[in-house]
Each structure stands twice: as C-alpha cells, then as structure tokens.
C-alpha cells in the first residue's frame, strides 16, 4: 500500500547551453557544479534517462530530508553515472554499479566530474543483478544507507533478479530511492511486487515525463 500524496514536479531542464558540439556530451548543473556526461548510443545504460534527471533534481532540492553527507550510497544500474556524481557532490561515499560493458563510460564520467569535488572518492564496480551478490558484496561487510536506482525497470527480462538485488541490499535502516518512467504494464507489476515486500511511498510524480519517484524501506517485524 502506498502512503501520503506525492508532490507533483516538473523535470527542470538543467542542461546548460552546450559548449561542445558533439552529439554525445550533455551538460547539466546540479548543486552548483557543471556536470558533463558522455553518452554512448551503443548501450541502454549509456544514455541519461528521465528518471536520473528526476532523482538528481530531488536529491539537490531535498538535502534536509535526505542528507547524503558521509552516508554510504549504492547506485544500481548507474548508467552514465549522473546520479552517482550528484550523490558524490552531496558528500556521500558512493559505489556506482552496472554491467561490465557499461563500466568504462561510467568510470570516465564519474572520474571526470568528481576529480575536483572535495568529497569522498567514488568507487565503480560491476554488478549483475541477482548474480554473485554474497560473493561480491558480502552482507557482513557491506551495509548501505541509501540504494539509488533510476529507470532500471523497462521492457527487459531481468525484473526478478532486479527485485532480488533490491531485497538483498535493503537492510533495516536502508532507504531505497527509485525513480522510473512508467511506460509498460510490466512497470506497474514490478511496482506492485515492490509494495508487497517493502513499505513504499511515492515521494514525487513528474506527470509530463511519466516519472514516479518512490521511497522504499524494509518492513520491520
């Protein structure tokens, strides 16, 4: 069951007039920093999707409610790295994860945009949803304050492993923030499964782009 009524927001076009003329670079401004994102048209994970813009904007605007300073943050399906970069600028210990073929571009964007940021150095790691979680991220060692996920739910077959990954990393005290553009019935089915497992609240809706931003926490028995 979903509680509270969400705020209705617009995704602000935080794109700065482009300095470069390459099709593959987007310029954004969050938390007073200009962020340059290199995109790749070869992978889904290498394009900035609307959920990433929505969550970046929300984290920037709600720093009191969600204070990331010195918090341990894991982004799953980090893609181009925009959200992880914003979390790093906000002072978090960030681990950005994605599939092996996305990591080169992800690492490039994160290192380029955080090298002058006076914060914790972010980490980039491989994470295939539902695979090798306890070997790569043993529960005894890894505990995250926040799990961030944007546009991880779309028309693909890995929804059950994705849910299993969210369940694995969400311990008591962890906050999952998931922003997604809702396009297909499978998106709503995933949301329903999420609501059956976690305490789930819709924090914000962006009607123009069909993005919903949800907060989920483990049900305490």
Structure explained in plain terms:
27% of the residues lie in helices and 27% in strands. The protein is an alpha/beta fold. Strands 1, 2, 5, 6, 7, 8, 9, 10 and 11 form a nine-stranded mixed β-sheet that branches. A hairpin with a 4-residue loop joins strand 10 and strand 11. Helix 1 (50-61) packs parallel to helix 2 (82-89) and helix 2 (82-89) packs parallel to helix 3 (103-114). The longest helix has 13 residues, at 185-197. The protein is globular and about 45 Å long. The model is unreliable at 16-23 (pLDDT under 50).
Q: Which features characterize this protein?
A:
globular; 6 helices; alpha/beta; 9-stranded mixed sheet; two-stranded antiparallel sheet; single chain; 27% strand; 221 residues
Structure summary:
The protein is an alpha/beta fold. The chain has helices at residues 50-61, 82-89, 103-114, 133-136, 159-169, 185-197, and strands at 2-3, 7-8, 25-30, 33-38, 72-76, 93-98, 123-126, 146-150, 175-181, 198-206, 211-218.
Write the SSE topology.
Elements: E1 2-3, E2 7-8, E3 25-30, E4 33-38, H1 50-61, E5 72-76, H2 82-89, E6 93-98, H3 103-114, E7 123-126, H4 133-136, E8 146-150, H5 159-169, E9 175-181, H6 185-197, E10 198-206, E11 211-218
Parallel strand pairs: 1-10, 2-10, 5-6, 5-8, 6-7, 8-9
Antiparallel strand pairs: 3-4, 9-11, 10-11
GO molecular function, one term: methyltransferase activity
Pfam families: Methyltransf_16 (PF10294)
Protein name: MT21C methyltransferase
């Amino acid at each position: 069951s979903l509680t509270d009524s969400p705020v209705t927001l617009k995704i602000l076009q935080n794109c700065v007039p482009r300095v470069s003329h390459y099709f593959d670079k987007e310029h954004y401004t969050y938390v007073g920093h200009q962020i340059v994102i290199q995109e790749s048209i070869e992978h889904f994970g290498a394009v900035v999707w609307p959920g990433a813009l929505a969550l970046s904007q929300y984290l920037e605007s709600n720093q009191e409610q969600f204070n990331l300073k010195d918090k341990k943050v894991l982004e799953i399906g980090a893609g181009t790295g925009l959200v992880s970069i914003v979390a790093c600028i906000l002072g978090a210990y960030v681990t950005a994860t994605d599939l092996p073929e996305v990591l080169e571009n992800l690492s490039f964007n994160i290192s380029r945009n955080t090298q002058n940021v006076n914060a914790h150095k972010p980490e980039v790691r491989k994470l295939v949803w539902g695979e090798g979680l306890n070997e790569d991220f043993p529960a005894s060692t890894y505990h995250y304050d926040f799990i961030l996920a944007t546009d991880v739910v779309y028309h693909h077959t890995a929804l059950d492993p994705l849910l299993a990954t969210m369940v694995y990393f969400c311990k008591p005290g962890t906050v999952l923030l998931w922003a997604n553009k809702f396009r297909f019935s499978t998106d709503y089915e995933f949301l329903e499964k999420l609501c059956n497992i976690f305490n789930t609240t819709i924090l914000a809706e962006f009607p123009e782009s069909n993005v919903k931003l949800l907060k989920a926490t483990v049900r305490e028995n």
